[in-house]
Amino acid sequence: MNIINIIKKLLLVLVMSAVLIFSSGCGGGENTGGAEPEGPAAPENEPGAEPEAEKKPLHYAADYLPSADYGGYEFRVVTPPNGSYNIISLEIQVEEETGDTLPDAIYKRNRIIEEKYNINFKGTVQSDVWACLSVFQRSVRADSDDFDLCTLLPRDAWARALEGTVVPVHKLPYLDITQPWYAHDVNSQISIAGKYFLAYSDECLNMFEVTSCVMVNKDLVKNLGFEDMYKLVGENKWTVDRFFAYAKDATADLDGDGEMTGADRYGIVAIDSELFPPFWVSSGFKNVSKDKDDLHVFTGQNEKIYGIFDKIYENLYAGTKIYYSGNTDVTISAVQFAGGLGLFHVDGLKSIPQLREMEADFGILPFPKYDEQQEKYYSPSGRGWINCVPVTSPDLGRTSVIMESLAVESKNYTLPAYIEIMLRTKFARDNESEEMLEIIYNGRTVDLGETFYWPVIGSSYELLLTGKSRDLASLIEKNIDKINKTISEANEAALALGF
Q1: What is the CA radius of gyration of the chain?
Q2: Domains and CATH numbers, the chain
Q3: Which residues touch 150 (CB under 8 Å, ≥6 apart)?
Q4: The pLDDT value given to residue 94
């Protein structure tokens, strides 16, 4: 071998070594920038790598976290009970591996953190999320150190943050919400005057569970001769108008009695609270936005949302009955869909496991765009329960180290288990749903009018539509002073906290 070839080989080795070193990363791990990665996908296979079905998730690392030994500290978490789908905001009670994918991922995540920091997780389960709020308030009033984290509803967490009893994100020294294990678009809505009070990370599976989606009966799509809806999504043609058009065409009086009842087929099955709000949130509209000083302002007096309300009314109430409502019980609408009596089922991702016994093939779609000019698909995702640190916590450094570790290890283990394994192989019926889930994950957003300001905005909107009215302008005019006052008080409370 001549010297030139030797030099070429040495240069090749050096280049490949540099690539490997660079790709291993430093600081924030595989993805250190503030941008959200393109969904929780594994890297491409190389020759000799594991087959596609056995890919392992990207490994993320928060290398900025300190090495610490907390001497067997009992890290205490107050949570509501397991939900219908055995997933809550922070599951701590998994004591051993069982062979069930998600609990085993939770177990592995928890053991990694316990061993790394010499702690022991201890969960105290309350009867419901409102009982968690009572525990939180009693403890703070008594100035007690009773727990490290407590799971709260988002609007309750927001109210407690503004009164100064929940520690804001900026006072938790090891939380870095620019990292890829945080929900950036959602968190960006929560700030006031540049300060963040709360932050969702991938630890909060409940937030992903409640993210809106559209399930579609693929057998009906085929039998009725409809277009491939995955293709519509990919071509940016999956719009509200097409959604309603297909829903109308699928609706049929199957028993021929001249009335639409539970024995007939509907274009849409859902419950009001899951169906109505996504129409404006997925359209990129926000009832509460930010001004130049990053203060919350009401932006609901807008022709776009008036048009959205008109569109909902005209399609759901002004003609053939195409919508079967389960009222407040989403199980009713899920049963209707599973029975082949609905083309579309609108709910959070949490409802997918309910369909595991459904005989017909179904697919998962993002909520449709307002029109084809809309930049991206937005996925309403603002009602997830969130873990809060009480101001009585004596060691915010330790608490934030464990919180950040839970976030990054959830990115590594529990989120891939939930998405890659549970949804994509156990429940979802096709490969294309993988792409749809990534679109949904990357499009998560929130309208604070549907979360923190729900009592004065979202609740009245939903009641208006439930009452089959389209007169949003009159509703807003009637409530505008109350809305502005509530938002102004929130801004003032945030500024008064003095940071």
Answers
A1: 24
A2: 54-209+384-427 (3.40.190.10), 212-380+444-496 (3.40.190.10)
A3: 77, 78, 132, 135, 136, 387, 388, 390
A4: 60
Question: Is residue 61 scored above 70 in pLDDT?
Answer: yes
47: DSSP letter: T
pLDDT of 21 reads 31
Is residue 417 a contact partner of residue 102, using CB atoms and an 8 Å limit? Answer: yes
The rounded distance, in Å, linking the Cα atoms of 49 and 61 is: 22
- For 408-453, how does the pLDDT look when each residue is reduced to its tens digit (9 = 90+)? 999 999 998 888 777 877 778 888 888 899 999 999 999 999 999 9
Two tokens, residue 117: 């920091």
Res 157 pLDDT > 90: yes
